[in-house]
Amino acid sequence: VNVTGYGSYVFSLDDGPRQISNVFENVPLGEHTITVWDTEGGMDNSCDPLVISGVSIIDYPHYFTPNGDGIHDTWNIVGLQNTTAKIYIFDRYG
Prior knowledge:
The chain has no helices and three strands. It has about 90 residues and is an all-beta fold. It has a domain of about 50 residues. It has a three-stranded antiparallel beta sheet, with no helix packed on it. The protein is elongated and about 55 Å long.
């Protein structure tokens, strides 16, 4: 999560504990809600939170080898529900 502006911020994922880091690790696939508080003046004086709903986590293989051997022959994005998403695929040279 990137936040710009003045002040200090804390973050929460799915109403979990607040944290100073804007990076969430080991987040399961699916939709999540991120809440951001500006804590300038301390937690007791924080502004109303910014709530970002419907954040989707997806997973995808970093490579595939469609050579017919049955290992890594297909490439699927797990958790992608947007049927209009654009996917760009490059070879090893970009």
